[in-house]
Structures are given as C-alpha cells and as structure tokens.
C-alpha cells in the first residue's frame, strides 16, 4: 500500500529526491485537494493532501519514481460570478509540472460548464482527455558544462524555431528532425558556428496547447505562443518520448550548444498563455 507522508511546501511542483517524490500545489481558496496518479493503462489512484502551509497543499510519496504521471482534483466553491470554478471532476495540470505527457482532447468533458450556458456546472470526468504532469529525473551529467558568458556588445543572437531550423536539414537524421536532439546534431551546430552566432534564441519551447479552433481546421499551433506549462519542455519536440525524456534531451541540447560556445536564450511571453 502506498504510504503518504507530510512532505514539504517547497519547492512547488513534483520533486524527486532519489527515494520518492514530494508534491506541492498552491491554492488559496481550495477546500480539499487530491493528488491523482495514473498507471500506464490509465488506472487512477487518488490521495488526499491533508497538510497545508501558507495555502500550499503538500505530501511526500515514497517510491514514486520518474515517469509517474499525475494531476490534481481540487474541491472548492463553484461561483462563476466571483471567478471560482472549482470542479473535482476536472483533472488539473500542475502549473509547476516539469514535464507533460499527451495533449488536450477538446470537447465538453474538459469544460467546467455546459456549452451555451457558462454559469452551469458540468460533471463529466476529464481525465481521459487531459494532458498529465510527469515526475522527472532531475539528475543530469553537467560535467564540463559552462555558460559562454559572451558580453552583450559582442553578442550575435540568432532567433530560431526548433522544428523550422531542423525539419528539412538534409544532414540531420529524419528521426531527429524537428527536435531538441536535431538542434544538438553536429550538422546544425556546425551551421550555426559558420554563421558566426554567439547565441541562439529559441522561439517558445515550453509546453503549449493547440487551440480547438485550429484543430477543427486541421491546423496546429506552429509558433507555440499558447503556453500551459512554463517549466516543461514542449513534448512534441522530443525524439525520445514524453515521459520525462524531453527534459533530458533538452538539457543535452543546451550542453552541446554550450560546448560549441553558443548561449541559449528562451523566448518567454507571459501574456500568451493557454
């Protein structure tokens, strides 16, 4: 039987320490919070978080390993007129998730209200249609890595899109095109060095959402300006998987660029969120 210990209110998110995982979620108005873990077959097991400090609900679960998928069900008042839409039938993504698995499947179940009546209450379960947070392995071999620290006056910044930069490059293996590993490929790094750049500024690489209006037209959000998890690398840019592998691949990309003397800058826009 899974044990649940009090854990810590800091840091927020899911933090693996080598033995288990600490979960911490901020909510000032919540009345109850459930941490929900998902098996590979989608089986859900929930644990109530009973320890709260400064509106942070937290618990430590021994033996919970990297790759574990999770989400939250938060109980509280449903008062749309005052901006409160607590609905435990809707699985919530951890805003501090460091990796995300899957995508949102748009439809009535992911909305807290009935279509056409925004003040109503919908109790269809959304878990099967929601992306999930993933516990990551925080450990990575940064041996030999250092920031280039190029002076601003000497900087030559090249703005690029992970997919656009690598998707059609003939010297990048097809399975790596459009991915973090594609940018880390020697052919791409050699191209960047020949340009003489000192830094690459990546267009949004945080986990983002495809709007339903785009999907209905058979389109997708190419640019990525619709972030839903600012601490999680976009999982579709990973060549190795979305159960935390995207984090390791992203770090490997940064290390490879640093080794070539290239700094990495991220395009972060907080007023373009999902």
UniProtKB/TrEMBL annotation:
One of its GO terms (molecular function) is hydrolase activity, hydrolyzing O-glycosyl compounds. Belongs to the glycosyl hydrolase 13 family. One of its GO terms (biological process) is carbohydrate metabolic process. It comes from Microbacterium enclense. Residues 118-274 form the Glycosyl hydrolase family 13 catalytic domain. This is Glycogen debranching enzyme. Residues 11-97 form the Glycoside hydrolase family 13 N-terminal domain. The lineage of its organism: Bacteria, Bacillati, Actinomycetota, Actinomycetes, Micrococcales. It comes from the Bacteria. InterPro entries: GH (IPR017853), GH13_cat_dom (IPR006047), GlgX_Isoamylase_N_E_set (IPR044505), Glyco_hydro_13_N (IPR004193), Ig-like_fold (IPR013783), Ig_E-set (IPR014756).
